[in-house]
Structures are given as structure tokens and as C-alpha cells.
Amino acid sequence: MPKVGIIYNEGKPLACKIAKELDDQLIALGWEVFSAAAKGGILGYCQSDQPITHIPIDSLCPPGFDADMSFAIVLGGDGTVLAAFRQIAPCGIPLLTVNTGHMGFLTETYINQLPEAIDRAIAGDYQVEDRAMLTVQVWDADQLLWEALCLNEMVIHREPLTSMCHFEVTVGRHAPVDIAADGVILSTPTGSTAYSLSAGGPVVAPGVAALQLVPICPHSLASRALVFSDTEPVTIESANPNRLVMVVDGNGGCFIRPEFTIRIARSPYPAKFIRLQPPEYFKILREKLGWGLPHIAKPTSVELP
């Protein structure tokens, strides 16, 4: 019996309703269905009075989700997609992303197109697009304290009411550099249209094997976004007496003390997106972000008396 998974945003009534309907529909078609809430991939944030809790990357996969599963369906917005891939990427399961949210930048289809999308997914009439993910780890000397998969970006920044921070960043075997800023963002091409874009970073097409390092409000005209090969691991250390805050994909994070080291590298687990049409990235940029649209209002010549 073929297996299919459903991951849904349990906080959205519409997603819950569609998940139940899909469950019944797929069972009637002879599929074995496993369902899971997206909250299983949201790590949450450490509290000031609680120690860092290490949750291994490969421990988040929901029961029944494994390499034998043909595909999975996610119902929600971009945050749900990020949480879903954190759960199933280590299993290599392709994911059909269905938008029940607002922006839906990472989603492939909409609720009104779901019947046709399900039929094509069942028939195997789709392509799989691999997107690079990152492995983010926090170390204290030789002890691994915290880790997570990351599809968009890793951000480390100062806490409120603290001053400008210094970050020592090492890319591959290159010499370390010091960045004075409110924080730094390390982004994948997928994440280049998220926080990185808001901080002034460039848009990087998903097929480019690159990462980008973007300072947040840097205290130097020479400190700007850097794009480099994703084969280069990155190490970030704090050169500050106070603790900092790290956030991964907006789904989880922890405090970074001065003695901690953050290590980031391309993950061996890609995010596998089901594509019902050949990917057209520039079209998505136009539809979601307005990139490249012609100017509607143009100045007209005025004859002076």
C-alpha cells in the first residue's frame, strides 16, 4: 500500500478542515495516510532561566514518515513550509506545498487548485526541485549544545538595550573578518527574498550554489553583503561581553554567550519541492514581490507658458 503524509498548520481552521478531507479522500483511494502538525518542526526559543536543549536534527521526523513515503502534502503558509521541511528533509520526502496563508512565497499551489494537484501528485506527474538547506550548530568548546536545519536564514543579533556588536566571521579557510553591526544574516538562495532582502542583500536564484552573508545596520561603508560558494563552511564567534540572540528561520533560536561558537554548513539534506510546472522564479518574483513590473505612472511633459 503506498504511503502519503499530510502536515498542516493546526492553528488555522481551514488547514485543519482540508487535512481531514484529504485524509478521507486518500484512504478511499487506497493510500496509507500519516498526518502530523507543523508545530513538531518549530523548535521554539530558549528562556533566560532555562538551559539550551539539544534536539537532534534527525529526531523531528513524525511517526510514519520515512523514506518509503511517496510524497507529503503541507497545508499552511511559508512558516508551515519551513517547519515541515525541518521535520521531513532528513527522510528525503518530496513535499507538495499548498498555500492557506497570505504571501505563500514558498508554496506551489492554492486550495482552489488542490484537486488537480493531488491527482497529478498521485500519478507522479511532477518534477522535484532540490533547494539547499543549512545545518546550524552551537558549540561550547567540544560540546554540541544546539542544532537545527535551516531553509531560509540564520540570524545572530544583539539584544535590546545593548550597543553595537562585533562578530568574528570565518568563511572556509579564509582569514577571519570582523564585522561591526547590529547583527549578521547568513542566507541560502531560498532565503535571499526573506530577511536578507529587507537588510539590503541581493536576490539569489535558487539554482545558484551560493550563500550570502549580510550585515544588519553595519557600522562601516565597506561592510556589505558577501556572496560565496556554499561549499565553504562558516564559523561565527561573538567578540562581545554580553550574550546575543540567534534565530533560525523564525522557528527557533537560542542565546549565544561569548564563549559559544556557531558553525554553519550546507546540509546533506536538501528540501525537495514538488513542482507541477517547470519552476519560473522570475514569475514568482513578479507576482509576490512586484519585481520587474513596468512603471504605471510616468512623468508627462508639461509646456510652460
Layout of secondary structure:
Blueprint: E1 3-8, H1 13-28, E2 32-37, E3 44-45, E4 71-76, H2 78-88, E5 95-99, E6 109-110, H3 114-123, E7 127-131, E8 134-140, E9 143-150, E10 153-157, E11 165-171, E12 177-181, E13 183-187, H4 195-198, E14 210-216, E15 226-229, E16 234-238, E17 244-248, E18 252-256, E19 261-266, E20 271-275, H5 281-289
Parallel strand pairs: 1-2, 1-4, 3-18, 4-5, 5-6
Antiparallel strand pairs: 7-20, 8-9, 8-19, 10-13, 10-17, 11-12, 11-16, 13-14, 14-15, 16-19, 17-18
How would you characterize this protein structure?
The protein is of the alpha+beta class. It has 2 domains: 3-131 and 270-289, Probable inorganic polyphosphate/atp-NAD kinase, domain 1 (Rossmann fold, 3-Layer(aba) Sandwich); 134-266, Tumour Suppressor Smad4 (Sandwich), CATH 2.60.200.30. The protein is built from 5 helices and 20 strands. The protein has helices at 13-28, 78-88, 114-123, 195-198, 281-289, and strands at 3-8, 32-37, 44-45, 71-76, 95-99, 109-110, 127-131, 134-140, 143-150, 153-157, 165-171, 177-181, 183-187, 210-216, 226-229, 234-238, 244-248, 252-256, 261-266, 271-275. A 7-stranded mixed β-sheet has the order 3-18-17-10-13-14-15, with no helix packed on it. The mean pLDDT is 90.
